[in-house]
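Our preliminary data section would be incomplete without showing what the modeling component actually yields. Below, a chain of 405 amino acids is followed by its predicted structure, encoded as tokens that our downstream tools consume directly.
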Amino acid sequence: MTAELKTTLLPQIEKELKDNILSFWINHTIDEAHGGFLGEIRHDLTVVEDAEKSLVLNARILWTFSSAYRLYPDPVYKQTAERALKFLLEKFLDPEYGGLYWSVKADGTPGSEKKQVYGQAFAIYALAEWFRITKDKAALDEAVKLFELLEKHAYDPVNKGYVEALARDWQKTDELSLSGKDMNEPKSMNTHLHVLEGYTNLYRVWPSESLRRSLKELIEVTLRYIVDDNTGHFLLFFDDEWHVKGGHVSYGHDIEGSWLLVEAAEVLGDEELTEQVKKVAVHMAEATLKEGVDQDGGIWNEADNKGNLLDAGKDWWPQAEAMVGFYNAYQMTQDERYLNAAVHSWEFIDRHISDHVNGEWYWGLSAEGQPIISQSKVSAWKCPYHNSRACMEMIERLTREPAHS
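Predicted structure:
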């Protein structure tokens, strides 16, 4: 089966990555007037001139093009990554208190100055990836500084884990939530998942003892508090002491977290913890497969804790994560149900999510089965990371596996 996928799936995914996703960002998103990248482009490619530029968008562009260059050393990928790095360090970096602003205005002056931990984590993730392709010591030093700032200010030494956000000067703030969709609670699954991701990538290039301790504890905290052992779903929001707030299920985060947890444990190199994590990851993948996948191969956005759909739309990013998460489950189990689910994820993406006319991906498919064109193609949250990463993960996994059928 793997041999067959190498001849069918692999070239399709490579073409999608290079010709539809990466080329879109190179050709449409450069901000020639103010530097960096445009903050928002609508579905019809209209530029929103005064749109703020989010830390998440810029860090994800840096990660994406650094990672693309690692796979395919095309100079334009490195140049695009370098543009993101320059803008990040010149415009987002807080010269007084350290860390990075949550957003800057269209012209690059500070916008929202709070220190959202999620955003700092993505900067760590991206700077570590840039270091992987360049050995740029200054970028690594910046990533390490961010790690140390999070450990000093955002880490909860009593209850473990990390607070959602802090004020510009790293003092407490009441403005905790990540976006308008999120609860204003001190801790969330989403922030912990992406701190995990950032720390994992940093550990690849800077395997210090302090980072090792933090990464190991973060995996353990995720298993203890964030994954529901009974259901195989992530719990989403918490108070300081890990009491659960709200009861939604996010299928995209479940399947994404299943493979990111395995990656973190494997990079850490703790065999006992890795075996524990793999069991949890398979449970999470199974829960998503049983409850979250529609007949067309797409996965729904959200349900309540009884399995009733709350959002029957299918946003772009859960589809990307499903392809990798199900394939990861297949690699761990050799259960062909997961392989089929991964292939169906790709087919759903190709059929419904990829925009074969204007490039990149639609925001998603509505509950009625129509492409969502009311949401922008580029925005604070619509970035090249989920889809590029899914393609690159599949390319790497299919390429390095022995071709057995």
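The two ends are 4 Å apart (CA to CA). The mean pLDDT is 96. Preliminary results of this kind motivate Aim 1 of the renewal.
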